[in-house]
Amino acid sequence: MDIDVYENYTSTSVLSGVNEVELTKWSAKYFKKNFLKHLGSDKNIQILEIGCGYGRYTKTIVDLGYNNITGIDISKEQVMYAQQTLGLKNVYLADAIEFLDNGRKYDVIILMDVLEHLELSYAIILLKKIHASLLSKGRFIIHVPNGLAPLTPPYHGDVTHIRAFSVDSMSQILRMAGFKYFDHFALPPLVTGITSLIRRIIWSGILNPLLKAFLLVANGGTSGGIYTSNLLTVAYKDKQ
C-alpha cells in the first residue's frame, strides 16, 4: 500500500512544534544573507521555486520586490498554507517534472531542501529538466544537507530524507544532468544575536579547522573543504 508521506508534511514536520512566524522571519534573514546575492538586482527576472513548501522563501522573494516568482509543491497541505495563511497567490500544487514540461524558461530556479528527498533516477531527470528550462546565463540555486557535517543533523532530522550530499557528490549529479559550471558555498551559523555569534566564532575558529585537519590526516584531502550543516550550490546554464 502506497502512503503519501507529504499529505500532512507541514503539520508533522516543517511546523511541528515550531512557531511559523518566527521560522519565516529567521528564514528571511537566512535567505538575505546567503542567497539574495545570487538572484541579482533585476526585480523583473523570472524565478521558479520548486518544492517551495509552505512558502517561507517564496514570500521572502516577494517581499524583496521581485515581481515574477512562482512556487510549486506536491504537498496539498503545504500549498494551501502558502495560499491561505501567507497569502501567496503564485504558489501551485504541481509535480516538478510535469510542470517543467510546459516549456517556460527561467532566469533563476531554486531548489531549497528538496534534492535530498528524491530517488536518484527522478532527481537526475528533474535536474536535466531544470537545465533545459534555464535561460541563457540562468542560475540554479540548490540547498541540501551536507553529508560531511558532523553528525549531519539536517539529514537525520527528517524521515523522508534519502541522502545527504557533499561537494563531490553534488558535483557528480550536476554533471550527470548536463551542468558544467557550478560553485559550492559553506553556510556557517547565521548570526542573529550573541548566542549565534558565539557559535559562529567557535565554528570558524575551532571546529571547521579541526575537521579540515582530520580529513587531511585521515584521507589525504579535504573532500571539498565544506563541513557546515548545509551546502549551497549555484549552477549556471552557461559559463559566467
TrEMBL record:
Gene3D superfamilies per the UniProt record, alphabetical: Vaccinia Virus protein VP39
CDD domains noted in UniProt: AdoMet_MTases
InterPro entries documented for this protein: SAM-dependent_MTases_sf (IPR029063)
Pfam families noted in UniProt: Methyltransf_23
Protein name in the entry: Methyltransferase domain-containing protein
